[in-house]
Structure formats: C-alpha cells, structure tokens
Amino acid sequence: MLRVTELDAGYGFLRVVHGISLQVNQGELVALLGPNGAGKSTTLKCIAGLVRPWKGDIAFRGHSIGGLRGDLVNGLGIGLVSESLNLFTGMTVYENLLMGAYSVPEAEKRRRSLDFVFSLFPRLAERRPQLAGTLSGGERKMLAIGRALMGGPSLLLVDEPSLGLAPKLTQQVFDALRKLSDDGLTILLVEQNVTATLEMVDRAYVLEQGEIVLEGSAQKLSESEHVKDVYLGVMA
Amino acid sequence: MALLETHGLTKRFGGLLAVNRVSLSVHQGEILGLVGPNGAGKTVFLNCIAGMLRPDDGRVSFQGADTTGATAERMCHQGLARTFQMPQPFPRMTALDTVLVAAQFGAPGNGMAPRELARRCLVEVAFPHPETTLVSGLNTVELKRLDLARALASRPKLLLLDELAAGLMTGQLGPLMDIIRRVRDSGVTIIMVEHVMPTIMGLCDRLAVLRQGEKIADGPTREVARDPVVIEAYLGERHKPDATSH
Amino acid sequence: MTAFLWRRRGLGVALLALAVLPLVPPFDAENFRRWLVISALLAGWAIAFDFTAGYINVVNFGFAAFAGAGGYASALVTIHYGLPIWVSMFAGVILAGILGFLTGVLTLRFRGIYAAVAAWFLGLALLGITRNVSPITRGPLGLIVPTFFSTDSNLPYYYVVLAMMLVTYLVLKAVTESRAGLAFRAIGQNMEAARASGVNPTRYRILNFTLSCMFAGWLGAFYAHYYAILTPDVMATSQTVQVLVAAYLGGRGSLWGPAAAAFPLVFSTEWLRSNLDRFPGLDLVVYGLALILVMVYYPGGFAELVHAIRDRRLRLPGLRMRTAAAPQPGEAGAVLSDVRE
Amino acid sequence: MSLAVQRLSREFRSPVTTGLIAGVLALAIFGVVRGGTFILVDSLVTGAIWALVAAGLALTFGVMGVPNFAQGEFFMVGTLSGYLVYTALSGVQGRPYVPFVTILMALVVGFVLGALVDLAVFSQMRRRIREGWVMNTFVVTVGISVVMINAHQLIWGTDYKGIVAYFDGPPIHVLGVSVALDRVFAISVAAVSIAGLWWLLSYSRIGRAIRAVSQDEPGALMVGINVGRMRTLTFAISSGLAALAGATLLFQFPSFPFVGVKPLYVAWTVVILAGLGNVGGAVVAGFIIALLEANTGFFIGSAWEDVVPFALIVLILAVRPTGLFGRAVRSVWEQ
Amino acid sequence: MSRGRLVVVALAALSLMAVSCGGTSGTTQQEFKLGIGGPYTGPVAKTGAEFQHAATMALEKVNYKIGNYKITPVWVDEASDPAKASSALEDAIVGKGIQMGCLNWHSSDAVAMMPVAGRHKVPYFFGMGATGVVNDNFNKDRAVNGYWMAKGWPTPQKLATPYGDAIQAFIDGGSYTPKHGKTVAIWGEDTDWGHSLTGAIKDKFTSLGWTVVDSQFFKIDATDHHTILNKFKSEQPSIIAGTSTAPETMSAFIKQAKEVGLDSVLIADGLGYVGDFYKLVGSASDGVLDMQPLFASPAAQQFVSTYKSRFGSEPSPSAAGLAYDWTGFCLKILKRTLDKYGSLTSDNIYKVGRDELWTGQLTYTDGIIMNEYKFSPDSIPDPVIGKGEYIFPVIQYKGGTGQIVFPPDVKQTNFTAPA
Predict the structure, then answer these.
(1) What's the burial of D192, exposed, middle or buried (CB within 10 Å: 0-12/13-18/19+)?
(2) In chain D, where does DSSP find H-type helix?
(3) Could you count the other beta carbons within 10 Å of the beta carbon of residue C115?
(4) Of the candidates C182, C192, C327, which has its C-beta nearest B100's C-beta?
(5) Taking the CB of the first residue and of the last residue of chain A, which one, N or C, has fewer CB atoms within 10 A?
(6) Do B68 and B118 belong together in one domain?
(7) Digit-coded pLDDT (tens) for C19-66
(8) Dihedrals φ, ψ of B190, to 5°?
(9) CB contact, 8 Å: C108 with chain B?
C-alpha cells in the first residue's frame, strides 16, 4: 500500500534521513523504531507531505506522492497523528473532530465517523464542548487520533503515541491502535518504547542515525541481539 | 556542600504540571544523569534552574546562595552554563563569534583573553570546521558541538547538557564521552539529560529519574537502573522486571 | 586604530569618491549637489536606523520623531541662547538620546512587531506633543531656524553632512565591532542563547536605542539648520518610511549597505520626480514597486548580495584559516583550569 | 454558548485586563456624568466602525502573520469603488436599496483586489522567505500602501469624490443625542458585518478552516486544508471588510488618495490594544479607543485626541506586552 | 565579494546616479522656462491640480508666447514637504533652467524655498504660503529672501477681520440678534493656517466685546467632530467660527454641525476652497458664512465653464481662480520686462519686480477674481488689501452658491440668520 524508496530528507543544510526504504502492506500494523533523533518523525512527515523529500520516491497505492502538499496527501486517505499532535487548541473537542473530516463532504459519513470515534474514546464524548487546549495529555492524544480517523483514512501514520503518557494511558492508546488495526486499518507507527511496541505490531523497522539497520517481524526483532542489547536491555 | 540544590521545585503550564515538587542536589565534581521518558519534564527542570523559566513554587540554590527566579544571564555570570536540546544558534555569526559571546559575557575569569578562550573551546570540542565558518551552514551535530563550546566558554562551574548525544552515530559517541569526561576532570560539575543509554551508563555517577514531572528515583547509576519502578516507567506496566532482565 | 582604518580602505576610496563627486560634472551642478546632501543625510539616518534594525533586530518605526526632536532641540537652543550651531547641535544629540533611552526602557519587554509599533506610537505621541506645545515649538506654524552658512552654495553643507555621516558610520561601526556589538548581534539573532551566554539584553538594548537616537538627533539638527524650517511633519511616519526603505534596500546588519543604497535611491527618485512631472505620483508608484520587488525577491538587499558572495568564500575550508598555533585537543585540563581561575 | 463563556472567562482571568475594563467603564460613566450622554453614544457609533476597520487587520495578522500597513488603502479602495458605483447608480438614487448595493459592490471589489494582492505578493514571498516574515511583510505592505495611494492619484486624480449622505432625513434621537441616519446605517452595517464575521469564523466550514490555520498550520495541512488558499481568502476577507467600511463611511470620508491614513492609524491602535491577531478583542478595543478619543477631546482638547491614546496604549503595553486580550507571544510574532 | 565585482556594483550605482543627472538641458535661445509651484503630490494634491489646470489656461490664453519667447511651464512639485519643495525648486532652476517661478501653497515650503531662489537669484512670485513666517523671513534678509518677490495671499490676520465687522454690521442693521449673547466659539485645523487665521478672528471678536467660550483644534484629517460640536452645543455660543483647508474635514464638520443640531451662526472659512464642496456638504452648507472671492464677472464665468469642460471638476475661486490671475500677472511682468529690457533674464525680471512691482507701478487689472492686484512698499511681500484691490468679501451660502453679504457696498443679498 505504501512504498518508500531511497528517501533522503532534512532541514536546511542538515540531512536527517539517509536513503530509507520501507514498505507497508494493506492491513498491516508496522512500527518504525529507534532512538531520539534517528529520523523517524522526519520520515513520517515526508510521507504526510509536511516535509519535502530531497530525494527518493514515496508511492501510495502505486501512485507517487513524494513532494505532494500535505492537504492533498490527506485527501488521498493518509491520516497523520504527529508527535506534537498539532491540535487546534482554541477550538472545542467537537470542532477539532469536525476539522478532521474537513475533506469529507457527506454529512452522514461525518456523523458515522464521529460516532465511531466517540465509541473508541468515550472520554472525548464527555469532553465534547471543551476547548482542546484545556485537555489532559492523554485526552489530547485521543483527540489527535480521533481527528485523524475522522477523515476516514486508509493509512494512519502515528508518531510516538506513548510520548508523555503514563504507562496506563499508553496502554489504552496502544490497545485502541491494535483494535483499529484488527478492524482492517493500515497503520505505520513511530515509537521509542520498543518492548511494548514489539508486542503489538506485525512488523517493524529499526532506524538509527537516519538509516534502517534492522527490519523484520516483531517476533524476529524481539529476538535480535542488537535490539536486546540496545533497547531491551538498556536498564539491566 | 551541594553545588546546586532544589527544594520542591514546581512548574505548571496551564493545567499541566510539568515539574512537580522536585528536590534534588548535585555535588561538586559529579556527573548527574537526568533521565526519564519523553515529556517527563527534564528540559523544563533544566530551564527552571538555568533561569529560562521562573518556577511557580520551590527554591533553587546554587553555590549556597538562593537563585530562585534569577535571570538566565545572572545564572550564567554565577557559573552555570547550559546547552540546548534544540541547538539555539546565532544564525548570522561565525563559529568563533558564537563562542566569543559566551567568552565575553560569561562568568568572570582572569587571565585568558576572551578570543583565545573561545578558540580553545572550539578546539576542545573538536569543532571540525574553520572558526570563520558561518553558523547557518552547520548541521545539527555540528551545532551541538558549537553549543557545547559556547557553554564551556562561559567558564561554568556547573554545566547542564540537554540531550547532547541525540542524533549521533554510534561511532561518534566515544569521542563525545571523552570530551565530557575531560570537562568533568577539569573540575566542572555536570547535569546531563540523555536518552542514549550507553552514554548514560558510561558517564554518570548518579541518576535521577523523572516521570510525569515527579522524581521517582535518585541514586548511583547501577542501582537506579535496576529499580523496578524505573523500568516500569520506561517500559510500561506489563513489563515487570522479570520480563526484561536477562 | 590603524588596523581599524586599514580594514576600511574600501571605505576610504568610497569616501574620496563622494568627496570629489560634487566637483566633477555632471554632479557639480547645484541641484545635484543638493541631491548629494539629501543622499548623505539619508545615508546617515539609514546607518543609525540599521544600527537598531540590523543588529538588535528591532525596527524603530518612530525613528523620524527622534530625529525631529533632535532638530527642534538644536534649533531652540540656537534661537534662545545664541549658541553656535556646532555647539547647540549637541543639545539635539542629548535630547534625542534621552528620548531614545526612555523609549528603550518603555519598549524593553516587546519584541518584533510589538516593539516596532510601540516605538511608532511613541513617535506619533511625540509628534502630537510637538504640535501642541506651540508656545515653545510654534507648533504647526513652523520654526524658522538659523542656518549653518549664509553661503549661496550647497557645497559646504554637503561636506558637513558627509563628515557627519562618516562620523556616524565610524562610531557606530566601531561599537558594532566591540564587545557591545557582539552583544547586539547576539540578542538580535537569538535572545535565548544570548541570555544563556550571559548577555544582559536589557542593558544592551537600551544602549543601542540610545546611541541610535543620539545620531538620529544629531543628523536631525543638520536637517533643521539646512532647510531653515522645522514643522512637526518632520516627525511624521512618511519620513521614517524613507529611512526604512533605504535601510531595507541596502540590506540590514551591515551599516554600509543602507548608506550605499541611499545615494542611488535618492538620485533615482529625485530624477523620477523631476522628469515625470506630467504624471504626479508616478515616481512614487515606481518607488513602491521597487521596494515590493526587492522585498519579495531579494529581502536581504544589497548588502546581503555582497555578503552572500563573501560568505561562500568564507565557508571554503582552507581559505582564511588562521595561522596562529592552535592548541590541540587533549589539553582540556589546561584550557579549563585557565577558564576557572 | 458555553464556548463563548469559556473564552470570556479565559480573557478576564487576568486581573490587569479586568482592571482595565473596569477603568474604561469608569471613564465612560465619568464622561457621561461630566460631559453628557453624547460621549457614550458617539463612542458606541464610532467604536463600532473602528471595530469593523480593525477586525480585518487583526484577522490578517492572526492568520497570516502579516502586519498590514496598507489596510487604510483598502479602506480607500472601498471609498473609491463606493463612490463610482453610487454615482453610476445616480439614475435610481433615493431608492433605499442603492446604498446597500453600493457597499456590497465595494466589498466585492476589496475582496477581489485583496485576493490578487495576496497571490501577487504574499504567496510569492511565502515561497521564498524563511526568516523575518513578519517584519519583511510589514515593509512590503508599506510599499503596497505607497503604490496604491499614488496609483489612485494617477488614475482618478485628486478630487474629493464624496457624497452628501446616503439617507436624507432628520437625525434620530438616542438618549438625547441626535444621530444622523447615515451613522445609524454605518453602525448597523458594522454590527451586521461583525456578527457575520463572527458567525463565519465560529460556525462555517471555511471559517473553522481559517481559525485552524491561525492556530496550527501543520495541523491544518494534516486535516486536508489548503493552507495557501485559506491565507489568500483571509487577506481577501480582510481587504473586503476594510473596503466595506470605506464605502459605508463615504458620507464622512470622501474618496481621495490619502483617505486611508486616519483609519489605518486607528485600526492599528485598536489592534495593538486588543492584542495582535485577536479579532474578538478588536471589537472591545474599538470601543475603548473611541471612548478615549471622545473623552480626551472633551476634557483636554481635540488636538490631543490621538496623543493621549497613543501614549496610554504604550503604557498599557508596558504592563501587558501582548495587549489586552493578546494570546501569548508566539515565536512567529517575534521575527 | 571580489574587488572586481564591488567595482562593478559601485560603477553601476554611480552610473545610475549619473544617468539621473543627465537630461540637463540648457535654455535654448527663444525658450523661456517658467517654474510653476504647487503641491502636486501629497495630501493636498487637489489644490495642486487646480493650480496646474488654472496656470495651463492662463498660458494658453497668451498661446505660450511673450514676444518672440516661447513660454514652457516647469511644474515644481512641493509635495507638502519643505525638503522636497526646496529640492524640486533647485532642480527646476539648475536642472531645467527656469528663470522665474510663481505660485506655491504651504508657508513652510515657502520658507525652505526662499533661500534657494535667493541663492540662484531667480525671482519667485506670488507664493500662496501666507502665514507670518514668510513675511518674517522676507524681512529678515531681503538681499537673499527678497527673491521671494511677493506673496499671492496676505497674512491671514489681514484677511480675517471682516468677519467681526460683518457680524457687527448685521447686528447694527437689525438683521441679526445673537441668540446667546455675544459669545463665540473658535474651531480650526491644527496647522499653521488654522492657528493664525483663527487667532485673528478671535482677536477681532474680543476687541468687539465678544466672549470666546472655547477654542478647539483638530488634526487636519479629522472627520469626526461630534465631540467638539456636542461640547459647543452645551456651551451655547451664538457663533462658532473657524477654518479648515481640507475639504473632507470641513464638509464633515458642517454636516455634523447640522446633525448635532447647533443653532449657532456657523463661520466656516475656506469652505469654498474646493469648488465641488456642495457635492460633499449639500444643504448643510445653507446659511454658512465664508470669505471667498467669487467668480462674478463674465470673464470669470467663462473661465469656470471652460475649466469645467476641460478638467471635469468645479474650480474654486481661491485656488484655481487666484492661480489663474497670478499666473496672468506673471505673464504681464514678463511682457513688461521684455518691453523694458529686450530680453527675459532672471536679473531683468528681478529688476522689474523690485522697481515696478514693489513700488506699486506695475499692477494687474485683467484678473477674473480681484479688481486689481497691487503691491506697495508698505505692504510687501503682501498684496495691498482693500476695496478695489485685493479683498475677500464675506459670503453666505445657499444651495451651493455664495452671495456677498458684506461689505455693504458690494453686497448682493442680506444676511439671513439661521432659524
């Protein structure tokens, strides 16, 4: 469904991503793992059209979308939950969700999506008239995911869902993502929290210093010596 | 006597408690690692003690004097220097001028001319380009080097390093650790916020762990790293210690 | 000092050219000499303006008001105390300096557009006050000001204003190359990093504002004693706009760029004004369009063009490498113990 | 409704703001007691008009980060197109719908011209400029202002192109103060337009998208909003509002090249007092400025009418650097 | 930047400047260049346009010819800015070779232009910059500033006295009874003109035993006068007297005075400066007093209709009308110079001005506004004021046209007090 080939990207003079290639198939839940500053977020932003790639190709359903503007990428059915969430803090929860369905013309479809999001995150239904800026960290995260889902994406990109969340909340978010994936949504996830992520995803790539150093099924990766040494055994 | 002490330091942003009653002391000559998941409040904590943010509650004392709410420039004059998580360059200056700012305006020293000091600091961090290189052309890694040189040039007694190793290739970590060690050996106390575990384990004498703005552990590096509360904070609820220790 | 001057030999050449210019045809005609006077005055103002805008990154949109205040002070001291103009001009310097200091203090907490607009409003308030304290300033009736010379040529005026422009440039350039100049650039380019490096933004910002306004006021005094009439309109925003246009076309943060831009700018606009008199306003349309085009396509202005070429050379490794023996890595202990004691 | 309450409570949380509002109310009462009810009535009428002029300026800054120095020139475009349309309709003058047609046409002209300016200038700049956006666009709008003023003079000359009144008839009396029908018309247009703008921004899809762009640009891209188009639209709306105000006030501001200067100054005063980019605050600040002007004019003298507000605003800013209702200064505003 | 490139850039800048300097053309033998000043750009460009149109018509009247000289106008744009005005004049003199100048609008511009004219010894006639600063400067250094030969408009003080006299005459004649005793309120634009004119009005009324209850000045571009007018209303003066030169300001003032419901007599000096004022003010101007010369004679009517058909707007007597007459006077001076000396040089023109204009020998009686334009050793630089010479009658408007109500010997109608 998504194929990234030899992607180079960066900011100003700084190249952050060096020749990354990866692929996400229909219905998969794939993770992009790696330490801070490895280039994971930049890769996601390139796919979502927020950062212009320097080189390489991004293909979605066989069509090249590299360098396409963010709003057009969104229109093709790629939803992004960014690291900083990019919520509209001066709008209510309801308005934020409505904005998520900005490119959905049918009111009926928007209503169904809204019901779905509220069923997925009942907390948001309770907070419906509240300004997004006044939500707690976990609620914001739910809202960001909910907003991305409102557009009815066929591919969901999620950047660091565990960021800044208490373990219990992280788990709730992960459960929600797993459920979405089980319902057939294709998800590409960026995470630092390796253990929890590997338990949930189908496949993963490990990114270090802007390059992919490992890839494979979750099972295979959790057994990899490199992953054990660098990520799982960190505290031991 | 502790070089730096905080008592019940608290910082809120709107409804969010970014730093929640953190008490911590840093001793002369040590490297203290400040760790915790993203968003745990580490950088906010650094900003509070470095005068970038005014704490809502609690006290900070540096070298025995109360410095709560002191401005950043005053903290710098007193001998507290910091690097930034996101490098904060002077985009239209040369590398030398950048470092020279701190050498000119940092803590008072005697003897070395500021320009000479600035040059030595550039050499000290192994800055790879000529000193007349324009800052706007540097990459993040180089900017972080420069930031470190800038911090050193202000003649610190206490140095705060905010994720200095982030984004470095594995091969670059060693030289960086050597630099940090040398700085420590010259008598500078260091607090470092870091994610890269080998760096932490290899450098820090002591670790303090923050989670959700609260300090959840504080002690010698090895002990803290084995603390089940800490591991849970990092790895999530389902990962009891037995699941990961092997 | 010698080194300071030697590094300015380019300036010397330019200055020599400017000094000779009013003596060679076609520039020796009185009208062109007047254009040269206007250019040099605008250049001086643009230098003082750039000293704030290009270094601490605050646009003083009330600039003309400070210049005008200097003019009024100098004129009033000459009229009421009969002091020689050369002496009373310093009254202008002092008043403008004090006003600049107060503005610096009042706008201290503002950045960017807020600082610009706050300075603008202060300038407008100053203009209003000047208009209203008519017992002193004669308000809108206008104050007749004694002139420097009773000569029938613009030439001596030109050399006076050229010298004033040169002094403005040399003094402000020397400041920007001093310790204070480093502080200006630091707070202008990155406030956070500057403070973390120990720069006190308050002190340097006030210093900068005060100095810039002092020179603005000094040149304002020249304006007063050249045109022989002062009305509150010299403090109007449109006057600031002229200085701002020169400073932005010349490029910020160089001091010489704005000065260099002032001459061709004045000559081309005066030429347009003089030759398109059938279409009143067309010159200003051209002038506005030029400003828009430069800002859209080359916002760094003339100085940026020069800098860009020079900086490319700077970045080439090997070139301009210092030759002094460098300490080697590993001498950290030595370096840092030096640092500490 | 609860949303409005939430916002209000947020804005009045600061004791400084509450104090200032209380001060303004006290001033109004003082003015009415010592001067007469006309101070209150005139401030309300003038304030509504200033709010209309300033709302566009606030919107442009809030969404695009453009501190528009040429806002007064779009007001001028409004007076000009209002005049041209009104005189073209001279055959049917006197019919009550003519003024409405006139101001609607001016709105359209301002809107289209604003869109063109954005496409020709700001869109181009957006592609090129990374650094110093706010100050650079400010300087560019200075250029636009110079061009528009002199283009007017070149093409339409310097005549005062104005009208006596849109509506003939005796003034109406409010609280013992007579108010001409044209001013009733103006305050109605201002009220309707501000309400319309408020509705547009609060409840329409487009308005939400504009707010989204102002609150979080990457976020707006991420939900599929064409950010560039929204910016163009914002500038067009803002120019349209200024032109609408110009045409509405044609009876008081005949069209000539420099007619925009006074509205520009007032709009800037209002917007700075309210906090740059705060559209709602601009409405309140419009009344505050009008009240300040009226009281200064009455108690100190008309010649001081703008000195006192200017000086006061700088002092208020010294206490609250972001204005009365300003959002926290974001980095983009500091360039 | 390489030194070579710097040189290229410097040369480019220099050549741009040199090109600007180019186009200097000397005077050809039989061409005479006449500088005509005015605020062609800037906030009062409307007045500048009237100057330009009227001067053009005056030149056309003589077919651009004086003797065998072809007269070419050079427009000197003072741009409402002393710096720009003096630069434009110097450029006109040196760059374009004008040998004589006429007309100007602002007093402050005049002060800056005077030494330029003096330096190049180019006589400049009939600047309308009227206030005392011009006279002061003229008298201070006549050797230099005396080249600013004669003003086209006397100091406002000399003109303003008739208002007081007129009101007194109305009271004496029984056509007017002050409603609230002898009380007057003063208003005006906050400019040199506004202050000097209203100062004179105030002095006159005070000397006639009136009480000035208030005086208010406003910025020249102010169009909201409700505060002032409401204040006046509460103070109940019998007369409110003042001036503004900006049509938008003036028309707003008069309309709002009616809106507020003031019952005072309204003296609005300068309402007629713009010929089109009725389009802006409408019936609110009925009953307003002003001092304006009128287009009375058939020649004047002819001028008005030609002007309207050519330039599409209504000329004002005091701007276009006076500019037409003063330009005509300039041409007469040229003719006289040519007759007397045989050639048109600045020096000869200056001598004619000094010897014949200042002494009152050379006067102009072919004007459409005044009977006779005349100077005298006592009056210079101002024209001689008085009946038969330069005088502004007091007029009262009705339906957009003014009729003389004072002085009695020329009055066309009786003063009508407002109801």
Answers:
(1) exposed
(2) 2-11, 15-34, 37-64, 71-88, 98-117, 123-128, 133-156, 181-203, 205-215, 217-222, 227-248, 261-274, 279-299, 307-319
(3) 28
(4) C182
(5) C
(6) no
(7) 888 888 778 888 888 899 999 999 999 999 999 988 998 889 899 999
(8) -135, 135
(9) no
Closest-approach residue (CA) in chain A for B18: A164
Nearest to C158 by CA among C29, C48, C13, C256: C29
Say whether A161 sits in a helix, a strand or coil. coil
Residues of chain D in contact with residue C287, where contact means CB-CB under 8 angstroms, are 146
Mind listing the pLDDT tens digit of every residue in chain D (335 residues)? Answer: 445 555 555 555 567 677 777 888 888 888 888 877 888 888 888 888 888 888 889 889 888 889 999 999 999 999 999 999 999 987 776 788 899 999 999 999 999 999 999 999 999 888 877 677 888 888 899 999 999 998 998 888 877 888 988 988 888 888 888 888 999 999 999 999 999 998 898 888 999 999 899 888 889 999 999 999 999 999 999 999 999 999 999 999 999 888 998 899 889 888 888 877 777 788 888 888 888 888 888 888 777 877 888 888 878 777 777 777 765 333 223 32
Are B15 and B137 contained in the same domain?
no
d(CA A163, CA A193): 9
Instruction: State the DSSP code for C328.
Output: P
CATH superfamily of E158-274+276-296+393-410: Response regulator (3.40.50.2300)
How do residues D122-149 score in pLDDT, each as one tens digit? 998 888 776 778 888 888 999 999 999 9
Both B75 and B137 in one domain: the answer is no
Map tokens 């009045």 to a residue.
D12
D328 interaction partners in chain A (CB closer than 8 Å): none
Report residue C156 as tokens. 């001596």
Chain E residues lying within 8 Å of C256, measured CB to CB: none
Integer CA distances (angstroms), D81 to D76, D77, D107, D109, in order: 9, 6, 9, 7
Does D223 contact A147 at a Cβ distance shorter than 8 Å?
yes
Angstrom distance (rounded) from CA E125 to CA E129: 11
Q: Look at the domain A1-77+155-236 and name its fold.
A: Rossmann fold (3.40.50)
Low-confidence ranges of chain E (pLDDT < 70): 1-16, 18-29
Q: Beta strand pairing status for E401-406 and B206-211?
A: unpaired
Buried b vs exposed e over D204-241: b needs ≥16 C-beta within 10 Å? eeebbbbbbbbbbbbbbbbbbbbbbbbbbbbbbbbbbb
Instruction: Show the domains of chain C with their CATH numbers.
Output: 2-340 (1.10.3470)
B162 and B238 together in one domain: yes
Choose among D135, D154, D333: nearest Cβ to C281.
D154
Cβ–Cβ contact C314 with B under 8 A: yes
CA distance E219 to chain C (A): 9
Q: What three-state secondary structure class fits A164?
A: coil
Chains touching chain B at 3 or more Cβ pairs under 8 angstroms?
A: A, C
ipTM: 0.82
Q: Which candidate in E46, E75, E224 is best for mutational testing of the D interface (most D CBs within 10 A)?
A: E224
Residue B242 pLDDT exceeds 60: no
User: E5–C35: do the CB atoms touch at under 8 Å?
Assistant: no
